[in-house]
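Troubleshooting: if your tokenizer reports a length mismatch, compare against these two reference records.
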Amino acid sequence: MRKIVGIALIAFGVFLEVLWIGFCFGSVIIGILLLIFAPRILFFPFTFFMAIGLSLILGDKFKSAKFKYQNYSKYSSSSQPNYTSQDTIDKYYKTLESLKTDDLSTIKSNYRRLIKKYHYDSIASQNLSDEIEELYKQKTQELNEAYSAIKEHLK
């Protein structure tokens, strides 16, 4: 039943799209301008009903796929994660070997010292095992995440 409704919604979207394009190109200038400058508006009925129809037909497979119109509400406008959890912030201070009372310049110097110590490029010339290099890459990523989170938190 879900597949039939999904196919019906897709067909309805195609029908609306044909009507919408006919309406837009009834005034040729508006249709051409929409086609050039705003194709998303021109093809909205089709994409909207296609997404709903496919979600009904495919179910969970459709929801787990990575689509262009995915909801990014868990991120702020700068596409960076929102670090608000107090436990997480405490963990980041510990990662940077800093105290909550430290100012940003102290935290920055700790970050630079630790990056210099743990950056995987600095140990590449030492011919260490791949496992150790992988650990250093992870440590570098943790340090970068912690520093950016603390900077965001202190703003």
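Reference record two:
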Amino acid sequence: MLVKAILTGNGDYGKSLKQRRWAAVGMLCIGLVGFACWFLLVPESHLSEHAQSFYLGAASGITSGALILFIRTQYLLTHPQAQRKAKIKETDEREMHIIRTAAQMAGGLTIFGVVLSLFIVLPLNIDAYYALMGVVFFYAAVFFLSSLWLSKRL
């Protein structure tokens, strides 16, 4: 969903699909780097089992998502009838409104959840507190910068 929202191809659906394919290739590279780290660096490290498992899980998830995105995009690029159907669905006003509303709700609930967890985490682990504060500041900065950019663009 996020890739579809970001890579619009300036209204050209074919260009958008080509951008998505390149995004899938980039994600695939990230997943493969994760696997390389898991095979080459993690076994000799002093990381906890949980941290070691993160590499395998994250690399598997990113690689799987990238492969699905790549296959789906390649299918749409080579099958014009399926491409027309997908274009109609993606450009449908109702569908676009649902996606925008869902993104707004997810962002709002996530930031409120992070702020709530700050109260719980502060007495338990100061490093986790700073990490969560970083997420809050990052969210605020992205919101501010994107609203500036959109106000000039739209």
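Descriptive notes for reference record two:
- The mean pLDDT is 87.
- The CA atoms of residues 111 and 139 lie 8 Å apart.
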